[in-house]
Design a protein that fits this description.
The chain has 162 residues and is mainly α. The chain contains 2 helices and no strands.
Amino acid sequence: MEIVWSNIVFTIIAFAILYFLLSKFAFSKLFGVMEKRRELVMQQMDEAAKTREQAVAYVEEQKQALQQARLEAQQIIQQSQATSSNQADRLLDQAKAEAARLKDEAVRDISNEKNKAVEALRSELGTASVRIASKLLEKEVKADGEQEQLVNQYLKEVGGRS
């Protein structure tokens, strides 16, 4: 194999001319496009990092909001339990007071009815006693006016009391 120096020189000259032309016209544009692409990729990476940071911050906010909502729900539950307990106690107290009032009224009514019954019985007993006494006295009373007058006076007194 023989080395042809003229081909090597011609190839080196062609390569140098090609390199010169490419560097003058193509490399600057190609490097410019590559630099723009690198800047775009860097910008997108920065935006992705910012977006990721925002997402992390948003997730933290959501966790805090969820925790706050849970605390508020727990407080509401506790308040409603306390309120229902208080209301149950109040209703129980009212029911006890109403029962005591009804009991007192019933005792008064029973006492009043008892007193009325006793008075009615006394009246009936007094009337019956007077009848019995008047029948007995009629038999024993003689035609004497003094005894008859005493009986009439006694009957008036007894009749006035009932």
